[in-house]
Amino acid sequence: MLTEDEKWIFDLQGYLVLRKVVSDNDLAIMTERSDEWHALSDRELPPPLRSYEDPEKHPKAARAILDVEYADHVFDRLILNREIMRIVLALTYERPQHLLSALTMNTWKNDEIGLHGGTEGTWHNPANDYQVADGKIFATFLNAAVSLVDVPPGCGFVCIPGSHKSSFRRPDYVDIRTGPPLVTNVPIGAGDAVIFTEALCHGALPWTPKDRPRRTVFVRYSTSYASWSPGVGPKEEYRSKLSEGVYEMKKQAGFQGPKKIVSQLLEEIQGERKIG
Ligand SMILES: O=C(O)CCC(=O)C(=O)O
């Protein structure tokens, strides 16, 4: 499902850039929803939406609104986006679980996001693992950062390419502003996605445009049997708000056989590829 070039790039860098994974129509709906919900306080959000950190208590933190897939089908659809799935299915050996989607807004007033992740001290962590064997890549915790806006150079996602394989402690003087060749900024366009292993050391430069915010949907997946956090899964009381496929994608499952939705996706993606 990954091309040989994509395998080479992902293994070398720890991330891939996917161009135009979201249609203009879905982009417009997501942007409208983002502006609508980010204008509300946490108390006013339609349940089960909530912020990762309450903006009243953490006014400088970029606000991430969680569980948006329960409130608009456009975010449910994004979880099973075929281009993202093509990569996630391959990297999890076809045993994925959707963990969390976060509709995030960064303005010029928000704090930067320091470097975090990386394998320093967490090598052999099964919940955030990275391995290569038999010509295949295996990663147990993935993040697809789908941008709803054009991100200019010097803003947004940064990472240390290759750090997902590092075995040594990062020196304290290396930070988000260190720049190339160590720290790479990945500016992308509206509708593009950066998909990365959370084992990659990454962060974000401050958003500088004052006339518009950065809007991103971070869609996180793990393997369905070695999950990053306990107790994640679909919210049963809101089950009717999800498509059947997303409901199943959110469930924990063993490694013995693929989920029904995974078999369907594989058939569709491989079928599309053959026809294409
Ligand atoms: O804002 C960004 O691009 C970085 C986000 C991040 O660090 C994360 O989702 O783990």
Characterization of this structure:
The structure is a single chain. The protein has about 280 residues and is of the alpha+beta class. It has one domain (about 5-275): Jelly Rolls (Sandwich). The protein has 6 helices and 13 strands. A 7-stranded antiparallel beta sheet has the order 1-11-8-13-4-3-2. It has a 4-stranded antiparallel beta sheet with strand order 5-12-9-10, with no helix packed on it. The longest helix has 16 residues, at about 260-275. The two termini are about 15 Å apart. About 40% of the residues are buried. Bound molecules: 2-oxoglutaric acid (AKG).
What is the succession of H and E elements? Answer: HEHEEHHEEEEEEEEEEHH
Which strand-content bin applies to the residues?
A: 15-25%
C-alpha Rg (nearest Å): 18 Å
- Mean pLDDT, to the nearest integer, reads 93
Main sheet characteristics: 7 strands, antiparallel
Number of domains: 1
Number of helices: 6
The hetero molecules present are: 2-oxoglutaric acid
Strand order of the largest sheet: 1-11-8-13-4-3-2
User: What distance separates the N and C termini?
Assistant: 13 Å
So what's the CATH class? Mainly Beta
Share of helix among residues? 10-25%
Stated plainly, the CATH topology is called Jelly Rolls
Supply the CATH superfamily name: q2cbj1_9rhob like domain
